[in-house]
């Protein structure tokens, strides 16, 4: 698996000094600023970078394709001796689908809703004259089987909306393989999936790419994923190449500061606090809560406590009821049964019946800073409103308090107080959201996926800030997340949820050491690690049938 | 038959020209991507465009310089249209140039990004507003003043039956057309503006209320609006005006019509305001305000309204056009703005028979078209501006 | 398939309910106002006898709710009542023979004429607009697209009567190709009828085409931006096949919607255009009745227009449900 193996292989794609520009406001702005890329036959290149690094744009350019409003202003793309930038539209069309294939991020949106999967699968082979319809159909079913799709002989006759996301992603990989191309571009194929589904897709993509010795460009922002998939890794930052190296070399010995800082993110970890003494009153107690949307129960008898100065991480996949629990605590969704207690006294279930003192003590920080801050209000107004509302401060006293709060979130007031949310970066906006909740002087803050919309470096800054604030102000956090790396770094206790039930709960150290509930085990084991052998080892340990959704199916 | 044959032959010639154009382009540019990947349909389109342009220029030259006057009359309106188009383009260009030089940094930036159509729209709106506000000072005569000379031909040339006192002539009972056009700006545009304003206050207010309160208030209002919208606007307006006619007349009927149109249009505004409100209400900052314990009035006026102004402003333009056109149609049908107020729709109706003189006395038939054109020009202008606003706001989202 | 039928049945029921409520609104609008219509019709010089005669004649002495159901019952049987003009006449002359032209008899031939006009318009406008809309979407931001944008925007902005007079000017007066008056009568030859209908139909076509083309363009552009179209291109499918096989099946629902909505829009346009061309259709009858305050005819026309409008919107709704693959092939 070392890139030395490819030293002698023929060059498949050669991109030289690529400059790309995007059009906005009637002007062209640079997106890619001079990147070289060489891919040999059978090699898998991982292309990583934060959002806006230009990795998808570069990936598409390697196919000689530009989206609307994007152009290649300089450079050359040679695919197996063919100059893609000089080739006619017809010549390029002959290559696409036949020798170069593409797997998109959202399989649900990239399959045509009007046609069956198998008809879309066979379209490229038939129109390129590679296979007949019958042969291509049979081959498609064979590929479905290789990719371990359930009912491979039948699943192709379904429409896209009748198939789950993880299965669609594998069906799209099969479709890309239909003409046995020399090159496949994978554009964040697992980003939209839950971890337990992701692992299945990763395993099957890797297997099939190896089997047919296909060269691939694997685009992702997730380092741990790319570590499993790629032979070589190239790091991009804002349209520039940072460095490129063989995977193991890159992981163990990054050269550039930016790459080092990316790697270091994964290492932030707080020491776990000692266990809470029995008999202390929790700040928030969720007691036997059952809640429903309409007539359907979505939470079943959920109970857990959150103590002063502690962080409880509530983890689970989408649809597990994490956010619903938060809505019950804030009173937006009054539970059907059970109650919520604040420092030992039961709270009214509906937020409209709670008094100002009770509302003040429970605050929230949202996932999307864009929708959490009113775009028409300045930072000063956003933070100032709760200050005035809860403490009654006005004028200079209010301004002083706002400046104090901005100091706490490490945004200089002199520079930011009059800015609108649209004039700040994602991380800065999230900090303003934190300041707004601190302005109420709360005891308890719900953090709803606060870092999942942010790039890793920025996310780490937010986590460190939250940890500091907790120590200084003795806050309690409920941390809703699907990202177990975040859990590892910040939580004291962990609550695992699945389908509206609490599966398991306990201190972090216990939760990360076996033995535990099989679902917790599956969830934890599905989170990719930076070790390039992680997936290989896991598959050996558990076997292909005991990972991902297949394993979840066995549990129930 | 020969007409059809000419048409077919012309098409074949154009198709051939398109093919030649592409072929020559490929050879001349050494297969540059533009020509290499050009489908035949596109080449044909270019050839067709060029052919149309040649025809227009040829006709214009014929009418202006070659044909005798009697025959050129046939192309009078064509020539006027070409002149109008060129003039409008030049005026808009100069206006935009001016806007780029004069004004604050913000307004200069706005003018730099503005397409010519939008600049034209802004210019026309300004001119109309000026006319409407200063109608009393601008108009040479009163809007109800009847003169002895009826049916004076526009143009002011006595040889053709004009009169310099009435540059655009007089109508069938001897009222000055220019003055009535200018007063029409105040009456027609003013009434449409007031109507739209009422519709926005009523419909917008109720829409936001429904979006914020939800529950039964929303249900009742929305269902009521559904029913009212199931009757086409013009039809419903005619029905209600029939009823109103039984009780009021003249200016009273005009006021009744304003209220009726405002009611009908407020249903459309309600729909939009509610949708815009709904989009804002689901935002997390509204949830944060609710959880803070804020009152309803604070949420509506401080959190929702500032975010709703941009989409509502664009919609105001569109609603205004709709109301303006509907009121003009009602007036044209004789049940809209009532005398003594001068109004463009009514003017078209009154003078429509002049059209038939177009073949030999084109100036005569210009009068009704002027009034109708005045209506069209303003709506076109507003639409150009709104189109640009929508384009801008959608572009910023990307 | 079951769920689709269920949704369609729901929509149908909803449409009927709307129509029922609309009929109440129309009836209430003219009947529940304060004062007395009979007096209003006759004006100030009305003698009490004349007022009483008209009241009886129109059934105004009965309770409104009762009158509504009598009216509705009549409507359902095709009886739209007698027009005021006729009633007036009969009462004054005192010679009420009982033989009158009913509203239904007045409307029927005109209804057919209007349907003919709408049919001719749709036959020209729909293929024309959809083709142009698709072309504009395919070559978006080209010279053609920009020119089309400006032209359609101008056409939408012009009142129908302006377009009508411009067409009369160029196609009837300056170049005497088509008649500017549409005097249609029974027993006319089809070709002649078509010739007389062409100018009003062209006017309506201009208005409707502009709307329809813009909406089609927007729908197609929206569609072409979807990832599955990009996927089809990246599979190396021929451009024509991408359009026909991938875009069109999904574009069907939005295009059908656009067509139905614009045909509904025709209803408003028809009124003005019929007046301009003196076309003997239901729109002209409606305007005439409004002017002479002939309430039963106004009510009837209003109900017909509203019913057509609701029906077209309902059709749009149902067709787009049927053409949606997600609903046609449930999980």
TrEMBL record, chain A:
Subcellular location, record wording: Cell inner membrane
Q: What is its EC number?
A: 3.6.3.-
| Membrane-related topology note | Peripheral membrane protein
- Membrane-spanning segments: none
Q: Where is the ABC transporter domain?
A: 13-263, 284-524
Q: What class of enzyme is it?
A: hydrolase
Classification via InterPro entries: AAA+_ATPase, ABC_Ni/Peptide_Import, ABC_transporter-like_ATP-bd, ABC_transporter-like_CS, Oligopep_ABC_C, P-loop_NTPase
Q: Which UniProt keywords apply?
A: ATP-binding, Cell inner membrane, Cell membrane, Hydrolase, Membrane, Nucleotide-binding, Translocase, Transport
| GO CC term (a single one) | plasma membrane
Q: Which Pfam families match?
A: ABC_tran, oligo_HPY
Q: Which GO terms describe its molecular function?
A: ATP binding; ATP hydrolysis activity
Q: PROSITE patterns, from UniProt?
A: ABC_TRANSPORTER_1, ABC_TRANSPORTER_2
Q: Name one GO biological process term.
A: peptide transport
Family under the similarity heading: Belongs to the ABC transporter superfamily.
Q: What is this protein called?
A: Glutathione import ATP-binding protein GsiA
Q: Which organism is it from?
A: Pelagimonas phthalicica
Record gene name: gsiA_2
UniProtKB/TrEMBL annotation, chain B:
Q: Which InterPro entries match?
A: BP-dependent_transpt_permease (IPR050366), MetI-like (IPR000515), MetI-like_sf (IPR035906)
The alphabetized UniProt keywords are:
Cell membrane, Membrane, Transmembrane, Transmembrane helix, Transport
The chain positions of domain ABC transmembrane type-1 read 185-390
What GO cellular component entries does it have?
plasma membrane
Subcellular location per UniProt equals: Cell membrane
Which GO BP terms, alphabetically? transmembrane transport
Q: Which Pfam families match?
A: BPD_transp_1
Q: Where are the transmembrane segments?
A: 6-25, 37-63, 75-95, 116-139, 189-213, 225-244, 250-270, 316-337, 357-386
**Topology with respect to the bilayer:** Multi-pass membrane protein
UniProt lists the family membership as follows: Belongs to the binding-protein-dependent transport system permease family.
What is the protein name stated in its UniProt record?
Glutathione transport system permease protein GsiD
UniProt lists the gene as gsiD_2
UniProtKB/TrEMBL annotation, chain C:
Keyword match Ribonucleoprotein:
no
Domain (ABC transmembrane type-1) spans 111-316
Which keywords are on file for this protein? Answer: Cell membrane, Membrane, Transmembrane, Transmembrane helix, Transport
**What residue ranges are annotated as transmembrane?**
12-33, 115-139, 160-178, 198-229, 250-277, 297-322
Q: How does it sit in the membrane?
A: Multi-pass membrane protein
- Give any single GO term for biological process: transmembrane transport
This protein's GO CC annotations:
plasma membrane
Q: What coarse category fits the chief subcellular location reported for this protein? A: membrane
Where, per UniProt, does this protein localize? Cell membrane
Coiled coil, from the record = none
Question: Transferase: present as a keyword of the record?
Answer: no
Q: What family, per the record?
A: Belongs to the binding-protein-dependent transport system permease family.
Identification of the protein by name:
Glutathione transport system permease protein GsiC
* Organism per entry: Pelagimonas phthalicica
- Tell me the gene name: gsiC_2
């Amino acid at each position: 698996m070392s890139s030395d193996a490819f030293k002698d292989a023929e060059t498949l794609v050669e991109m030289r000094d690529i400059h790309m520009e995007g059009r906005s406001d009637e002007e062209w702005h640079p997106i890619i600023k001079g990147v070289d890329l060489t891919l040999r036959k059978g090699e898998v290149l991982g292309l990583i970078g934060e959002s806006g690094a230009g990795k998808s744009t570069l990936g598409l350019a390697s196919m000689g394709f530009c989206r609307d409003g994007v152009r290649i202003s300089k450079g050359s793309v040679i695919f197996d001796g063919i100059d893609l930038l000089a080739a006619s539209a017809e010549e390029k069309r002959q290559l696409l689908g036949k020798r170069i294939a593409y797997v998109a991020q959202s399989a649900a949106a990239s399959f045509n809703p009007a046609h069956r999967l198998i008809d879309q699968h066979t379209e490229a082979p038939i129109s390129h004259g590679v296979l007949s319809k019958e042969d291509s159909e049979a081959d498609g079913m064979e590929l479905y089987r290789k990719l371990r799709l359930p009912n491979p002989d039948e699943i192709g006759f379904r429409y896209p909306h009748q198939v789950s996301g993880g299965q669609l992603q594998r069906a799209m990989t099969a479709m890309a393989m239909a003409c046995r191309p020399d090159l496949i571009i994978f554009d964040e194929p697992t980003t939209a999936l839950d971890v337990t589904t992701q692992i299945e897709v990763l395993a099957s993509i890797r297997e099939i790419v190896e089997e047919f010795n296909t060269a691939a460009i694997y685009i992702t922002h997730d380092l741990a994923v790319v570590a499993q998939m790629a032979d070589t890794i190239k790091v991009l930052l804002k349209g520039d190449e940072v460095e490129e190296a063989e995977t193991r070399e890159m992981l163990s010995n990054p050269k550039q500061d930016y790459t080092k800082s990316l790697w270091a993110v994964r290492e932030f970890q707080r020491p776990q606090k000692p266990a809470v003494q029995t008999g202390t009153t929790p700040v928030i107690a969720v007691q036997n809560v059952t809640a429903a949307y309409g007539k359907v129960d979505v939470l079943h008898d959920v109970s857990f406590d959150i103590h002063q100065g502690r962080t409880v991480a509530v983890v689970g996949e989408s649809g597990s009821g994490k956010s619903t629990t938060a809505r019950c605590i804030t009173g937006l969704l009054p539970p059907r049964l059970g109650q919520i207690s604040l420092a030992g006294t039961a709270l009214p279930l509906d937020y409209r019946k709670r008094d100002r003192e009770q509302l003040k003590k429970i605050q929230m920080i949202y996932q999307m800073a864009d929708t959490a801050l009113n775009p028409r209000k300045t930072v000063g107004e956003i933070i100032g409103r709760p200050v005035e509302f809860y403490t009654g401060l006005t004028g200079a006293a209010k301004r002083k308090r706002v400046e104090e709060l901005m100091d706490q979130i490490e945004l200089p007031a002199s520079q930011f107080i009059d800015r609108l949310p649209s004039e700040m970066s994602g991380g800065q906006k999230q900090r303003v959201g934190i300041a707004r909740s601190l302005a109420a002087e709360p005891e308890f803050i719900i953090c709803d996926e606060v870092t999942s919309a942010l790039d890793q470096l920025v996310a780490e800054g937010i986590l460190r800030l939250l940890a500091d604030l907790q120590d200084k102000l003795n806050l309690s956090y409920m941390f809703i997340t699907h990202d177990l790396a975040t859990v590892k770094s910040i939580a004291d206790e962990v609550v695992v949820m699945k389908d509206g039930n609490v599966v398991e709960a306990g201190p972090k150290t216990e939760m990360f050491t076996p033995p535990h509930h099989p679902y917790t085990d599956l969830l934890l084991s599905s989170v990719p690690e930076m070790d390039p052998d992680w997936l290989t080892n896991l598959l050996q340990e558990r076997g292909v049938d005991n990972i991902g959704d297949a394993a979840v199916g066995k549990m129930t | 038959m020969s007409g059809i044959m000419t048409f077919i032959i012309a098409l074949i010639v154009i198709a051939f020209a398109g093919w030649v154009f592409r072929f020559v382009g490929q050879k001349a540019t050494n297969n540059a991507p533009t020509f290499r990947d050009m489908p035949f349909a596109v080449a044909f389109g270019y050839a067709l465009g060029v052919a149309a342009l040649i025809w227009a220029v040829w006709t214009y030259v014929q009418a202006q310089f070659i044909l005798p006057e009697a025959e050129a009359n046939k192309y009078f309106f064509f020539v006027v249209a070409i002149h109008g188009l060129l003039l409008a383009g030049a005026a808009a260009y100069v206006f935009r140039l001016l806007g780029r030089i004069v004004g604050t940094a913000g307004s200069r930036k706005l003018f730099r990004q503005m397409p010519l159509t939008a600049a034209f729209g802004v210019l026309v709106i300004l001119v109309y507003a000026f006319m409407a506000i200063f109608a009393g000072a601008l108009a040479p005569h009163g809007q109800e003043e009847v003169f002895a000379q009826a049916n004076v031909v526009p143009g002011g040339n006595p040889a053709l039956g004009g009169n310099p006192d009435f540059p655009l002539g007089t109508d069938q009972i001897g009222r000055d057309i220019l003055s009535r056009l200018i007063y029409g700006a105040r009456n027609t545009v003013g009434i449409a503006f007031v109507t739209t304003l009422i519709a926005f206050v009523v419909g917008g207010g109720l829409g936001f209320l429904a979006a914020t309160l939800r529950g039964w208030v929303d249900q009742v209002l929305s269902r009521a609006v559904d029913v009212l919208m199931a009757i086409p606007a013009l039809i419903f307006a005619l029905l209600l005006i029939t009823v109103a006619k039984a009780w009021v007349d003249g200016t009273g009927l005009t006021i009744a019509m304003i209220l009726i149109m405002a009611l009908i249009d407020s249903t459309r505004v309600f729909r939009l305001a509610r949708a815009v409100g709904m989009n804002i209400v689901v935002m997390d900052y509204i949830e944060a305000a609710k959880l803070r314990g804020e009152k309803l009035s604070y949420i509506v006026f401080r959190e929702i309204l500032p975010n709703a102004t941009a989409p509502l402003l664009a919609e105001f333009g569109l609603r205004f056009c709709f109301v303006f056109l509907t009121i003009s149609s009602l007036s044209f049908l004789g049940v809209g703005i009532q005398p003594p107020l001068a109004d463009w729709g009514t003017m078209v109706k009154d003078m429509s028979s002049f059209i038939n003189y177009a073949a030999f006395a084109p100036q005569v038939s210009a009068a009704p078209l002027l009034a109708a054109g005045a209506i069209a020009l303003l709506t076109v202008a507003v639409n150009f501006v709104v189109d640009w606003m929508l384009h801008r706001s959608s572009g910023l989202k990307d | 398939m079951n769920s689709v039928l269920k949704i369609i049945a729901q929509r149908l029921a909803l449409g009927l309910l709307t129509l029922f409520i609309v009929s109440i609104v129309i009836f209430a609008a003219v009947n529940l106002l304060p004062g007395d219509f009979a007096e209003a019709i006759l004006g100030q010089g009305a003698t009490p006898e004349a007022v009483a005669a008209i009241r009886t004649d129109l059934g105004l002495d009965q309770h409104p709710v009762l009158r509504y159901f009598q009216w509705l019952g009549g409507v359902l049987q095709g009886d739209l009542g007698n027009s005021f003009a006729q009633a007036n006449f009969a009462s004054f002359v005192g010679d009420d023979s009982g033989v009158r032209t009913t509203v239904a008899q007045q409307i029927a031939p005109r209804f057919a004429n209007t349907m003919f006009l709408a049919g001719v318009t749709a036959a020209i406008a729909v293929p024309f607009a959809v083709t142009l809309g698709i072309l504009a979407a395919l070559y978006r931001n080209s010279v053609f697209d920009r020119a089309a944008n400006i032209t359609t925007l101008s056409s939408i902005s012009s009142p129908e009567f302006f377009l009508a007079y411009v067409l009369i000017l160029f196609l009837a007066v300056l170049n005497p190709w088509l008649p500017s008056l549409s005097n249609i009568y029974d027993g006319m030859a089809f070709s002649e009828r078509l010739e007389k209908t062409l100018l009003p139909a062209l006017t309506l076509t201009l208005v409707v085409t502009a709307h329809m083309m813009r909406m089609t363009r927007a729908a197609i552009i929206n569609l072409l931006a979807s990832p599955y179209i990009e996927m089809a291109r990246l599979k190396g499918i021929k451009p024509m096949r991408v359009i026909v096989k991938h875009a069109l099946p999904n574009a069907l629902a939005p295009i059908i919607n656009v067509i139905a909505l614009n045909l509904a829009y025709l209803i408003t346009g028809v009124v003005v255009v019929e007046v301009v061309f003196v076309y003997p259709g239901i729109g002209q009858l409606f305007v005439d009745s409004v002017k002479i305050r002939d309430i039963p005819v106004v009510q009837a026309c209003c109900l017909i227009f509203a019913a057509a409008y609701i029906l077209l919107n309902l059709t749009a709704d149902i067709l787009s449900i049927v053409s949606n693959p997600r609903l046609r092939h449930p999980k």
